[in-house]
Structure formats: C-alpha cells, structure tokens
Amino acid sequence: MDVKQIEALSDLISSSVAQLKQLQSSLKTTEHTAATTRAEFLKPSLEVVAAASQLVALVRTPERYLMDISTAHQLSTSLRVVVETHVVEILREKGQGPKKSLSAKEIGAYNHVNHLKLARVLRILATHHIFEEVSPNVFANNAISIVMDTGKSLTELEARPAEKYDSSNGIAALVGLFSDETFHNAVCTADVLKDPQMTNSFSPYDASFALAWPGTRNIAMYDWLNLPENNHRKKRFGMAMHGMNSMTPSDAILRGFNWSSLAPGSIVLDCGGGVGSVSLPIVQSCPQINLIVQDTSPVVAEGPIFWQANHPQALAQGRVTFQGHSFFESQPAENKNVAVWLLRMIMHNWPDAECVKILKNVRASCNKDARIVIVDNIMLFASRSQEIEGEETGTSDPDALAPEPLLANWGVANSLSYKQDLNMLSNHNACERTVPEFADLLSQANFRIVEVHQAHQSWLPQIVAVPV
Ligand SMILES: C[S@@+](CC[C@H](N)C(=O)[O-])C[C@H]1O[C@@H](n2cnc3c(N)ncnc32)[C@H](O)[C@@H]1O
C-alpha cells in the first residue's frame, strides 16, 4: 500500500474541505445544492472528489475494486426504475412525518411495483447515498434523489405520462436517457469492437446503437429518435439536454465567449440547439441579441413549450425563433447575417467526416465577421504529460490540469467526460476531442481557432473560431 500517496491525498482532502467550509459559512445556508452549484465551490469540490476516489482505489483490495466497478450497471438500472415509476414524486407528495418517508409497500401501492423488489432497488441506491433508508424498508428522498423530482403531481403523471419531463430541471430525463437508450447501446460496444469490420469503421451507422435495437442497423440514432413511435424518447432527449445544462452553473455559457460584446440586433444561431435551453442565459443577459434555434423539425417543434415556461417575453417579442433544418444541408440564405454560430455538444455526436460537413455548411453561409463558438468537452490525457512525441496537444490553460498527486485529468472527478466519450462511441460512433483535433476539423472547413476557454471552472470548455 502506498501510504505516502494516501497521506498526500488525505492532506489534499483536508485542505479542500477547509476551503469548502469557509465558502459554506459565507453562504449562511447548509442547503446542499445552494453550495455545490456555485462556481467558487467547483475547484475544491473537484479536488475532494478526485482525491477521495483515488484514495478508495489505493486502499480497496484490487479484487473488490474491480467488482465494484463491473457491477455498476445495477446502479443505472435502479435509477431507471425509480425515474420511470415516479418514486421521487410519490415520496414528495405522499411521504409522512418530518422526512416525508413511506414504506416500500406504500410506494408500491401508488406505482404498482412489487414492494419486495422495489425495496431492494431503493436500498442499493440508499447504499450509494441516493434516497435515505430511514428505518427498515422505509425510504425518503434526500438531497440527491430530490434533484430527480419533475415537480409533477401523481394525478398529472398518471393522466399524462408523456409530459412527465416537461418544464422540469431535466435531470430525471437525463437519468432516463443514460440508463435506458445509452445503457442499452453500451451493452453492444464490446461486440462492435471485436467485430473485424465494425471495429475499423467510422460510419455513424456502425455505432453500438446499430446492434442494440431491432431495426437500427441502417439508421442513425437521431433519425431513429425522430420516428413517430419514438416520440416519447425524443421528448425525453430534449429535456435531457436541458438537464445537462442545468448541471452546470446557470451562467456557464456566459463564461468564455464575450456575448455582451455583440452589437445591438446581432443574431446568434444555436445550431443543433434542441429546444434552445442552452441559449436561455444569453437571451436573458444580453437584451441586444436575437436568437434562432436550429434543429430538426420534430425537435424544434418542442421549443416553444420550453420558452413559454422559461422566458415567455422573448417568445412574445419574437426575439427567439425556431428553424427546422438539417445541418447536413446547405444553410438557408437568411442565415447569412448570423453573428455567432453556437454549436454546443454537436461535434461530439459525429465522426470527423460528418463534423467537417457541418462546419463546411456553416462556413459557406457565414459572413467574414462571424464567429463560431464550439462548446464541448476538451479531452485531457490521464498521464501527467500531455504531449505525444514532443507534439503540443493543446492544454493552453495550465489551470485545466489537476495538481499532483491527482491524475492530471482530474480522474474520477472528471469521469463524466470520459463516460460521455464512450457514450458518443456507442450512440453515434463519435467521440470527444482534444484541442488539436478540433483545430484539424476547423481548418478543413476554413476556420481557425482564436480563443480556447478550457479551465475546468467553466465546466464545458469553449473554442472560438473565425473564418479564414
Ligand atoms: C447532444 S444534443 C445537443 C443539444 C444542444 N445543443 C445542447 O447543448 O443542449 C444534439 C442535437 O443535435 C440535433 N441534431 C441531430 N441531427 C441533426 C441534424 N441533422 N440537423 C440539425 N440538428 C441535428 C439533435 O436533435 C440534438 O438536439
């Protein structure tokens, strides 16, 4: 056992906890989410998570450690059960006593899940700090489970189950997406990687998704989501993207490109923008900006519901409009005046050839003063060195790397980026990228990078490029 490293990690935990304590006392609240969503908490909390996880890997026996990881699918599955059977909402609405708790039998009377099985699902989650087992077989929401509350009443959920995620924070929808479609696809990744043809293919039609569902061998996942029979999945996907957004500080999109520098009347086009939730803070904080949300027609059709719930004035004033369009087709002529093309979490959905196609369509339509803002994970190597054979790999921001003895890429504290990289592999045969990989794609479409905002504090990094 490497006691020296264990000590160094526990020292780091102590100093980061001291910082968190100081910050918490300045907030004058003990509420969990009030603290953890604030920007200044990000660095010390990342340090605690990275150090504590590294510590666990050092002190656990290797066999136990491997078994903990290889059985993690039971956690995803259990989360899917509670989201799809409304356990969080049942506890919030029907729970009794100071903790608003119910026995598994009482919960089962509302959602019709066998209570003996439900108790086991809830117990594994409570064992991992999601829900509290208040007394044997009696459960309550806690600070983590309550984040999956869609705010709907049981009457609403029963009457209109397809609207479960509408106007919610999107977290339950995101849990649903990860634990259902994404999980399903990932089960086939080993088969794809061992297949002599598929392993070397970078076609979007050769993702694990192609093997995961009946009839998906020749259709890309987004086209499948747009099929009428998958309407409920498409709706959930849209809200899941909003959930991804609500995980970050609410002004994350504002930390990077200087949106307020845009002239009055400037148009921002949120390309592949889903319902446009990411651009909400831009519209709220920059009254001089008008927004076009561009996505496939079935997706943008959901946009007005989101804006009606979150910023009805912008909708009424016509500051936000929607454009049903595939970014693989030439951009409509009316987009010639767009000042900023925002592509958030788009590049990571597509293999290189398709990314270049999207960028070339934007380039053909954009004027010489336009900017393109790419918001996506920027990948770091787990090794301390970030260079390949002497080549700089683009860690332009030294603050992006974690301090020693942590893994340089922030280890488990940053695991969602690496899970997303593999989610992109299994969903779309795509990937997350390093800065030089982005630079290469952009230069193929005649753009060059002018700004990289990579620091972990901004959560999702931004790359700003201009036409050449
Ligand atoms: C990962 S989501 C990102 C959504 C949004 N930009 C965000 O950051 O929340 C990818 C989006 O690309 C859209 N998309 C997929 N294929 C498209 C196409 N051919 N044309 C336009 N949008 C597309 C999807 O509908 C989806 O909304």
Describe the structure.
The protein has helices at about 5-25, 30-35, 40-60, 60-70, 75-85, 85-95, 105-110, 115-125, 155-160, 170-185, 190-195, 210, 220-225, 230-245, 280-285, 295-300, 305-310, 310-315, 350-365, 415-430, 435-445; strands spanning about 100-105, 130-135, 140, 265-270, 290-295, 320-325, 340-345, 370-375, 445-455, 460-465. By secondary structure, it is of the alpha/beta class. The chain folds into three domains: about 5-70, no CATH class; about 75-165, Arc Repressor Mutant, subunit A (Orthogonal Bundle); about 250-410 and about 425-465, 3-Layer(aba) Sandwich (Rossmann fold). Strands 6-5-4-7-8-10-9 form a seven-stranded mixed beta sheet, with helices on both faces. A three-stranded antiparallel beta sheet has the order 1-3-2. α19 links the parallel β7 (about 340-345) and β8. α1 runs antiparallel to α3 (about 40-60), α5 (about 75-85) packs across α10 and α7 crosses α8 (about 115-125). About 40% of the residues are buried. The chain binds S-adenosylmethionine. S-adenosylmethionine binds near residues 222, 273, 274 and 296.
CATH superfamily of the largest domain: Vaccinia Virus protein VP39
Q: How many structurally independent domains?
A: 3
Amino-to-carboxy terminus distance: 55 Å
Question: If helices are DSSP runs of H or I spanning 4 or more residues, what is the number of helices?
Answer: 21
Bound molecules: S-adenosylmethionine
Give the tally of β-strands.
10
Helix and strand content put the structural class at alpha/beta
Strand order of the largest sheet: 6-5-4-7-8-10-9
- Amount of helix: 40-55%
Percent strand: 5-15%
From the 3D coordinates, which CATH architecture of the largest domain would you assign? 3-Layer(aba) Sandwich
CATH topology of the largest domain: Rossmann fold
Low-confidence stretches: none
Q: Whole-number radius of gyration?
A: 23 Å
CATH class of the largest domain: Alpha Beta
**Major sheet characteristics:** 7 strands, mixed
Q: Residue-averaged pLDDT, rounded? A: 93
Shape: globular
